[in-house]
Amino acid sequence: MANNQINHVALIMDGNGRWAKKRGLPRTKGHEEGCKRIIEIFDAVKANHIFCMTLYAFSTENWNRPKSEITLLFQYLDKFFKDNIATMMKDGVRVQVMGDISRLPKHSQKTVTKAIEQTKNNNNYVFNIALNYGSRQELVKATKEIAELVKENKLDINDINEQTISDHLYTYNLPPIDLMIRTSGEQRLSNYLLYQLAYSEFIFTPTYWPDFTKDKFEECLKEYQTRDRRYGKIEE
Ligand code: IPE
Ligand code: IPE
Ligand code: MG
């Protein structure tokens, strides 16, 4: 069994609504309980010496949900940062955001910008949160930035390579993603990190996010250790 250190884990927290429905509760209760798991899982990330956690919190497609649910999700986001920023500072956690935050409610833009600014010099861990994030939009943004450099004669077209693209993604300063976990049983990416996950290991667990405890997360880490990452090579 390999003993591969995980540097970067990406999560799709899914199933909050179904968790609540199963209990006869409003969907919002699922999001409320789900918020508690974020910090529990991030504690486990730190305990397992994983440098970075990337979390899908709001997709570009989630704007299609009822306005009342969207409003509440962003209120929870504010509360999450207010409750946890002091611990993040103490633990040397840097907050990063993926996505266009200009479409977020003003109060969330403020909270998020403040968290990024306050934690920018921290280097022990990264808490990377995807807000109004879509991988296709990210690739369009990267393409435009690269085209602009070529147009301004700052970049030769023949020098464009895989690294050039990586350098223009939100994850430009983060290590490759070793493991991607999606909860709730759905087996799709839902526009998440299409380029970055090219060689990551995937775990799809049927557990709904509010039930995804530290123990369940650590089972996933164990499962990862049984994987053989060949990268196209064969065993010698
Ligand atoms: C994930 O849970 C949280 C967000 C997308 C913000 P869902 O809200 O998607 O829950 P289900 O998939 O409807 O159960
Ligand atoms: C993906 O979950 C987005 C987040 C977890 C933030 P969704 O619940 O929105 O994805 P679909 O609709 O099942 O693809
Ligand atoms: Mg869902």
CATH architecture field: 3-Layer(aba) Sandwich
Categorize the overall geometry.
globular
Mean pLDDT: 97
In angstroms, what separates the terminal alpha carbons?
16 Å
- Continuous helix count: 7
**Biggest β-sheet description:** 6 strands, parallel
The structural domain count equals: 1
The level of helicity is 40-55%
Number of strands: 6
Low-pLDDT stretches are none
Percent of sequence in beta strands = 15-25%
- With strands numbered from the N-terminus, the spatial order across the biggest sheet is 3-4-2-1-5-6
Class derived from helix and strand content: alpha/beta
CATH topology heading: Undecaprenyl pyrophosphate synthetase
Q: Class, according to the CATH hierarchy?
A: Alpha Beta
Radius of gyration: 18 Å
Fourth-level CATH superfamily: Decaprenyl diphosphate synthase-like
Order of helices and strands: EHHEHEHEHHEEH
The set of bound ligands, ions and cofactors reads: 3-methylbut-3-enyl trihydrogen diphosphate, magnesium ion
